[in-house]
Write a structure and sequence with these properties.
- The complex is a heterodimer of chains A (633) and B (250).
- Chain A is 52% helix and 15% strand.
- With 633 residues, chain A is of the alpha+beta class.
- Chain A has 5 domains: 113 residues, Jelly Rolls; 84 residues, no CATH class; 118 residues, Roll (CBS-domain), CATH 3.10.580.10; 128 residues, no CATH class; 152 residues.
- In chain A, a hairpin with a 5-residue loop joins strand 10 and strand 11.
- In chain A, helix 22 runs antiparallel to helix 23.
- With 250 residues, chain B is an alpha/beta fold.
- Chain B has a single domain, classed as Nucleotidyltransferase, domain 5, CATH 3.30.420.
- Chain B contains 9 helices and 5 strands; from the N terminus they run αβββαααβαβαααα.
- Chain B has a 5-stranded mixed beta sheet, with helices on both faces.
- Classes of the chains: A alpha+beta (633), B alpha/beta (250).
């Protein structure tokens, strides 16, 4: 009875569901069961490796990493999900913290049993590796993105790329009799982290890496005059050229090494490092970015937006964080716009005065998910003569219309409220824009507050970006002078309450097509965006993305210091719910929207949403108090 | 919490000891070994959670019809390490007891006698700390048999989840009067009650109750086995279990 319950449970859980009943019975007899009260630390970052594979039977856990004083949430794992794989598999210290987010029961599978399964069923191992690789890829993505590596080489994915394709061919080999110092110099000169030690016939004898120099020479106080033979690592881990990259990663984790020799039967073909594998991840976004650059006319750009959608699906499957996904989408969409404008300018000649193409709304905040409506406008430099003024107005009117139409062709529907550059209202010289902004701030009518919420998230994407900068400075100056505007905006922010009823049950759509559903964008995401926008305007922060705004406000805004991290995590969580839901819809062939049915959420997701709503409500109360008490300077 | 800092080595040491004990185990030794180290932390010791089904509660006339047990390493329940045996009772199954545990005379007629099952059961328990819901009842019957067969009582340390829970309720200022059944306590901890009134199923429920209780007790300051014993058996100062009661009290 006890074991048959475990078997029944495992039968519903991937990848166990793919195993035979007899195997599941064997596993069940080895399973132990542990209970973790809410808040229990199950695994600790940099702590001992996991000794088990943990499968959540009931409840849920939060996985996060601590960097400095910040906790970065990587994932939530719920009923049927597992954790502990990475350090169990590598025997290396745990890289993450795992804490019970609720009272949680886990089934534990011991290392020995797990490794047996791993060896007997390759597909079983691959499942875990894939889910792990997703996380691995995600953390390295941030690094690559920040370093601007996104636009470099590569063109396929870890599961389809043979190691031979990415292995470094320009392999540096040395004789075992070379001195340690000579070898170290060679490595420094060539800026490489390893040397392969070979005999006269170029058969590999060993490898010397940075780590060997550190651990076996410097730390051990060995003379640098000695031969390499004394310090080289002779247990060579090799991989065949034809094997896939994820297998290389697997070997690296398993042996805790960063270099693998790539062999073609008996011949040394090259070397592959963990860095090469990391580089591999950014590939599909890079490929798309390059494709965009290479297209010469609008028609050729059309198929690319559907490529962006399928790439997003892939990133989702690999476990990339929602905020990173939207950064990639935003980046690619931006490149698409830039390319469209470039192509148009080439065809129709340069403009009479400098201009700046700006985007706002979710595009301005770099928070796009799948297909979003166009939200754009155009600022041009103030023409010096009335003749030039007329010429510029005509030129930019036609120009904007062409760009808006091209964007429609590329899959960005027109904005129903006509917030587009082709609308003469939003296609104006700088002085008119300044006048508009001043007017919205000083009048503080409901309409102007609404327009402010839309336009103040603007971000320049093409042309003379200084024009956008000047407008941003003007905006901040005016806000300094007109604090009453912020009070009005705060009142709007506070009015828009999260849909959490008094009895803490969800208030959802009462009628219509989306009856009993929750609009994630309007009822959750927008509330956080509004709060953070208000804070940014209070401090004249020029960032437009919600997460970047929180980052920029840190240390200079009391409420952000107190609630910034929670708001950030909440935002990330809702974004993920939304993007997963939308991707599901796209895969089913329907139009993505922002609705979810709360009943389809699991307990942990519901609980988290409730907590998020309580958080929003609390912050709104504090904003309300502050403005009522007039404590905002 | 949990087993992070409990090295694998330590677990395997323990199981080696256990295996050794089991393999060397003879009937006479059964009753003489028992863990004496009361300073061990309560979330890092071995427990064996037991339950028995009886023909009735009269120690003179009734007898054991089934024995069930499941092992725990600290708070971890080892789902594959269970003991589950029916026993041919020395006394007749009464109508009333058949209704409770659903074991019919026909089912047990072909089963091994208590003489055959008891050594296996004691071997399974080893010197782990025995845990039960009001284990005093189970021990009365077990000891009657061990005394009859080997002339000595079971010497394992005994923990009563009923007493632990009562103490907990007292300590946190809840109503601690009344006599909640195992299933009442289980429900109060959100432990699912499944396959009730089957010895191993009840042992599993009891184990899950202990699993929930241990972290709470640790929070309330109960850290060592000695302290756990004291709480489990306040009247006796908590150390060794001796029975001197009438069933009528229950």
């Amino acid at each position: 009875m006890i074991l048959s319950d475990v078997v029944e449970f495992l039968e519903k859980v991937p990848p166990f569901q793919f195993l035979k009943k007899g195997t599941l019975q064997m596993i069940a007899s080895k399973v132990s069961m542990e209970y973790y009260p809410k808040g229990t630390e199950i695994l600790v970052q940099s702590g001992p490796p996991s000794e088990h594979l943990y499968i959540v039977q009931k409840g849920g856990v939060k996985i996060f990493v601590r960097s400095g004083t910040d906790d970065i949430i990587i994932d939530y794992r719920n009923e049927g999900d597992s954790f502990g794989f990475v350090s169990l598999y590598s025997g290396d210290k745990s890289r993450t913290n795992v804490v019970a987010a609720d009272d949680t029961i886990c089934y534990l599978i011991d290392k020995e049993t797990f490794l047996k399964l791993h060896d007997a069923y390759p597909a079983f191992a691959e499942y875990f590796l894939r889910s792990y690789l997703g996380k691995y890829v995600d953390t390295t993505f941030r690094e690559l993105y920040d370093k601007g590596f996104l636009y470099r080489s590569g063109n396929t994915l870890p599961f389809t790329t043979p190691v031979g394709d990415i292995a470094t061919q320009r392999l540096i080999t040395v004789s075992p009799e070379r001195s340690i110092q000579a070898a170290a110099r060679l490595m420094a000169e060539r800026k490489i982290s390893s040397l392969v030690v070979v005999d006269e016939e170029r058969k590999p004898l060993g490898i010397v890496t940075d780590r060997d120099l550190r651990e076996k020479v410097v730390a051990a106080g060995v003379s640098v005059e000695g031969p390499l033979r004394d310090i080289m690592t002779t247990s060579l881990v090799t991989i065949e050229v034809g094997e896939f990259c994820f297998e290389a990663l697997l070997k690296m984790i398993r042996h805790s090494i960063h270099h693998l020799l790539v062999m073609d039967k008996d011949t040394l073909k090259g070397i592959v490092t963990n860095h090469d594998l990391m580089m591999l991840q950014g590939l599909s976004p890079i490929t798309i970015a390059r494709e965009i650059e290479s297209r010469q006319n609008i028609e050729c750009l059309i198929p690319i937006s559907s490529e962006i959608s399928s790439m997003v699906g892939l990133l989702l499957k690999e476990g990339t964080k929602a905020s990173n996904i939207s950064r990639i989408i935003t980046e690619l969409n931006e490149r698409l716009v830039q390319r469209i404008i470039e192509i148009d300018l080439n065809e129709h000649g340069p403009p009479p005065v400098p201009f700046c193409w700006i985007v706002f709304g979710s595009e301005g905040r770099k928070e796009q998910t799948f297909k979003t409506d166009q939200d754009n406008a155009l600022i041009y430099a103030d023409p010096e003569t009335p003749e030039l003024e007329k010429e510029a107005a005509e030129y930019f009117q036609e120009f904007a219309l062409r760009i808006n139409n091209a964007l429609v062709k590329c899959g960005f529907p027109k904005c129903p409220a006509n917030y587009m550059a082709s609308n003469p209202k939003w296609n104006q010289p700088l002085r008119v824009w300044k006048r508009n902004f001043t007017e919205w701030i000083t009048s503080s009518t409901p309409e102007s507050i609404l327009l402010s919420a839309i336009f103040f998230d603007f971000r320049p994407v093409y042309g003379d970006l200084d024009l956008g900068e000047i407008l941003r400075r003007h905006l901040n100056q005016k806000l300094e002078q007109e604090r009453f505007f912020l009070a009005r905006m705060a009142a709007t922010v506070v009015d828009n309450r999260p849909p959490l009823g008094f009895f803490k049950t969800f208030v959802v759509e009462k009628s219509g097509e989306h009856k009993d559903q929750l609009n994630l964008k309007i009822s959750a995401l927008a509330l956080i965006v509004d709060i953070v926008r208000l804070f940014s305007l209070e401090r004249g922060v020029s960032e437009t993305s919600t997460l970047e705004r929180i980052e920029a406000l840190r240390g200079q805004h009391g409420l952000t210091d107190e609630f910034g991290l929670e708001l950030e995590q909440s935002f990330e969580f809702i974004m993920l719910l939304r993007v997963l839901r939308q991707f599901e819809q796209i895969e089913l062939g329907s139009e993505p929207d922002n609705f979810i049915n709360p009943n389809e959420l699991n307990t942990l997701e519901k609980q988290t949403l409730k907590e998020i709503f309580q958080l929003i409500s609390r912050v709104q109360d504090l904003i309300d108090q502050r403005y009522r008490l007039g404590t905002v300077s | 919490m949990g087993f992070r800092d409990w090295s694998r080595g330590k677990i395997s040491d323990l199981s080696d000891t256990y295996k050794q004990k089991s393999s060397n185990f003879g009937a006479m030794e059964a009753a003489v070994f028992g863990s004496e180290d009361h300073s061990l932390p309560i979330d890092k010791v071995r427990y064996v959670v037991i339950d028995s089904e009886l023909t009735g509660l009269d120690a003179k006339k009734d007898s054991i019809v089934s024995l069930g047990a499941i092992r725990m390493l600290g708070t971890r329940i080892l789902l594959g390490e269970t003991f589950d045996r029916l026993v041919s009772p020395e006394t007749k199954l009464t109508g009333a007891s058949v209704v409770i545990h659903g074991i019919t005379p026909g089912e047990v007629a072909e089963k091994p006698s208590i003489e055959a099952v008891l050594p296996e059961f004691l071997s399974f328990c080893g010197d782990d700390i025995m845990v039960g819901y009001m284990p005093v009842i189970d021990l009365t019957f077990l000891n009657r048999e061990t005394k009859r067969l080997y002339g000595i009582s079971v010497k394992n340390l005994i923990i009563d989840v009923f007493a632990l829970d009562k103490w907990r309720r007292q300590r946190i200022g809840e109503d601690s009067s009344g006599c909640p059944s195992l299933y009442d306590i289980a429900k109060s901890f959100d432990v699912p009650v499944k396959g009730a009134h089957n010895a191993v199923a009840d042992a599993f429920i009891t184990a899950q109750v202990l699993q929930r209780l241990l972290p709470v007790l640790i929070d309330l300051g109960i850290k060592s086995v000695g302290e756990l014993l004291a709480v489990s058996n306040p009247a006796k100062g908590g150390d060794k279990f001796r029975f001197s009661f009438k069933f009528g009290n229950f």
